[in-house]
Design a protein that fits this description.
Layout (H helix, E strand, L loop, with lengths): L8 H8 L12 H12 L2 H12 L11 H25 L6 H8 L2 H38 L11 H6 L9 E2 L2 E2 L4 H16 L1 H29 L12 H12 L19 H30 L12 H8 L4 H35 L18 H17 L2 H29 L14 H14 L4 H25 L25
Antiparallel strand pairs: 1-2
Helix pairs in contact: 2-9, 2-11, 2-13, 3-10, 4-10, 4-11, 4-15, 4-16, 5-6, 5-15, 6-8, 6-13, 6-14, 6-15, 6-17, 8-13, 8-14, 9-11, 9-13, 12-13, 13-14, 15-16, 15-17
Length: 506
Amino acid sequence: MSVFQTKSIDELVAGSGAEGSRLPRVLGAFDVTMIGIGAIIGAGIFAMIGAAALGGSSGHPAGPSLIVSFAITAVACGFTALCYAELSAMVPISGSAYTYAYATMGELVAWIIGWDLIIEYAIGNVAVAISWSGYLNDLLNSSFGLSIPLWLRLDYRTFVQKGFDLASVPNLGGMPLVFNLPAVLIVLALTALLVRGVRESSTFNNFMVCVKLLVLALFVGIGLYYSKAENWTPFAPGGWKGIQAGAATIFFAYIGFDAVSTVAEETRDPKRDMPIGIIGSLVICTVVYILVTIALTGMMPFMELKDKIAEPLIAGLDHNHAPGWTIAVVALGSVIAHTAVLFVFQMGQPRILFSMSRDGLLPPYFARVHGRFRTPHVSTIWTGIFVAGLAALCNIDEMANLCNIGTLFAFVLVCAGVIVLRVKDPHRVRPFRAPGGYATPVLGIVLCLFLMFGLDRTTWFRFFGWLALGLAIYYAYGRKNSRLGSAGGASQGPVSASGAPAGKMI
């Protein structure tokens, strides 16, 4: 079998309907849009906006021109979102970009993008969980005067780099006991919730989204009240390079919209609801982001963010001596926002593993569906363990940049998939068609590549290393066990929850 052999859309849809590996369709357009907003608004706006304004390792600060950076990133994501909407309406099953690549560019590319999406969802969630821990401590401190010990909310390397005393830390078997306990606990708690069912999880997400939108509206109001025109001068201190670097960094704030596509198989009317959810959530979040950026850069000189880069919104309130209750409310809103992002990403990653397993590229163990809750519980639990383990020990900056490049690469392949499918199958019915002809996917590719080249060299090396590991696993296991490659490339039909072909339950 050629590694570029594709799986037809009809085969993909038929495979999703197998008894024992079928997911219930319970979500509507409102739920899907709220899942998108839940995934998008989180660590990116509450934590990364400060680093983007200061320029981070690029040395080119965006300053107030970060407003332009957000607009550029929104446009790039907009073209990609239209491509996602077209493909998700045509292929309404779990798997996101992995499934679309399988239908357009073949199994090898599908594997690459599926492996790459682990960087977006699982690694991205590590960064969010670490940031969540910091904001939880701020909430406890501002509301109750409590503080989590540093050795229980930092990773070992950050603890050492900040010059904290290891002698004051408990040790286990001679090893200092330094790890991020709150990050571990929130990931495991959400994993348990997601195992119970998507309907219950969606209701929880809707509540969290409403709360965080109200909190950001409060911050914008306060920020505009304290704003001074001189804080926007100079507007672009880093010039065009600062704007580009800022756009590449705050891309992390947008990556959630594609998580909507992972629940296509659990949506009642995916041909209608998926385009609404993907595009609607992106538009709403872009407006919110630009308003928050205007408020933050107006209420304080951006260079003063360097002293509290991880909590920029709270830094803005502190700078203006805003009432203490506002800091507590923003800290609460950030904890809830981070929780919502963690929730959606923890929902998305298992469904990608689930789809890859159902196609034989991963062991059938990961395609099991819980008999009572009807969720992909095995892949959900293992995702939780993986994310919790890394969140306990890793640094937020390296996780966020790796997540950015992995997501941008996936976006490039999704846009390319639209072009390929239009050429290969131009007459197939498209419930939603991205406007602009081929210009839309081409511009999506160009703008995503532009953002990728704004990331540092170390991130690129880590990315290629991750892809090399993925290719080794594919050739060692995936290619040999692929259901498409079995029996001379003929599809064997759907699989059951146990991993056996349907009709052969074991």
